[in-house]
Amino acid sequence: MEVWFTEDQTKNLRISCRVREVLFSGESPFQKVAVLDTLEFGRMLTLDNVIQTNIKDEFVYHEMITHVGLNTHADPKKVLVIGGGDGGTVREIVKHKGVEKVVHVEIDQMVIDVAKKFFPELSVGFNDPRVEILVDDGIKHVKENKHTYDMIIVDSTDPVGPAVGLFSEEFYRSVYEALREDGLFVAQTESPFFNSDLITRVTSTISGIFPVTRLFQAVVPTYPGGYWTFTMGSKKYDPLAVDTEKISALDTKWYSPEIHRTAFVLQPFVKELLPK
Asked: Residues within the annotated binding site for spermidine?
């Protein structure tokens, strides 16, 4: 008998993966958590029946949400990660030897526990002595820690359920206050094909708060449409002004000095979504 997992990516679009085995299924106080062994993408983490990450394509998302910002900031010492309980973002951050402290705030302990058990390739960064894991509300954390971080990464789920507040103007203003005088932040901002209104709203809001706002993109096959965006808000540094020849080599599969620059080359239909 064939077993398939199906995600309703929009009201009119689904993606299905054939499943070899259900490795874990549970429900936390926040969401349904499952780990599936799929034939196409390997081990896959889903939350509330929405694909979060998998072994086959995870590196694209995790490398882009981290290295673009870390290589834009002149000297990032203290980094905050909100969400991203699978650990992939933390894994990429600790590749940067100049980073002295990573504070990882994840609201759901079950996601962290599942990542440690079923995704050792992603959660390996949790073992780095520079990493502090806090099971807490990221929105509350940024409000309580002003002028603290050089970089903040918002590795959130889609803007539903616990993550809704991570896409609000109030939150972005709290992020601004939590950053040091030359700080910057990066957030995942969904698909230009299926979330165009969100991208317009978010980039407009962030550009009203941060002197530098940039949208950049990558390809993540299991996310709706495959074409995914990230938004950077920066108090000082412009990622387009980075001397890519000075970017140190990293153990990456997607990100590179060339990708750092070309990720900001946007198609005309995406440019139309941005503030004029």
From this structure: 62, 86, 155-158
Binding residue positions for S-methyl-5'-thioadenosine: 31, 106, 137-138, 162
Question: Is 276 inside a domain boundary?
Answer: no
Domain membership of residue 86 as a residue range = 58-271
Q: pTM of this prediction?
A: 0.96
> Catalytic residue among 37, 113, 155, 182, which?
155
Tokens of 181: 């005088």
For residues 184 and 178, what is the distance between their CA atoms, to the nearest angstrom?
Answer: 10
Q: Specify whether 46 is located in the same domain as 172.
A: no
Q: What does the alpha-carbon distance between residue 221 and residue 275 come to, in Å, rounded to a whole number?
A: 27
Residues 176 and 243 in one domain: yes
Token pair, residue 227, equals 């074409």
SS3 for 41?
coil
106 and 38 inside one domain: no
Would residue 57 show up in a list of annotated catalytic residues for this protein? Answer: no
- For 189-233, the DSSP string reads ---TTT-HHHHHHHHHHHHTT-SEEEEEEEE-TTSTTSEEEEEEE
pLDDT tens, residue by residue, 172-226: 999 999 999 999 999 999 999 999 999 999 999 999 999 999 999 999 999 999 9
pLDDT tens digits along 90-145 = 999 999 999 999 999 999 999 999 999 999 999 999 999 999 999 999 999 999 99
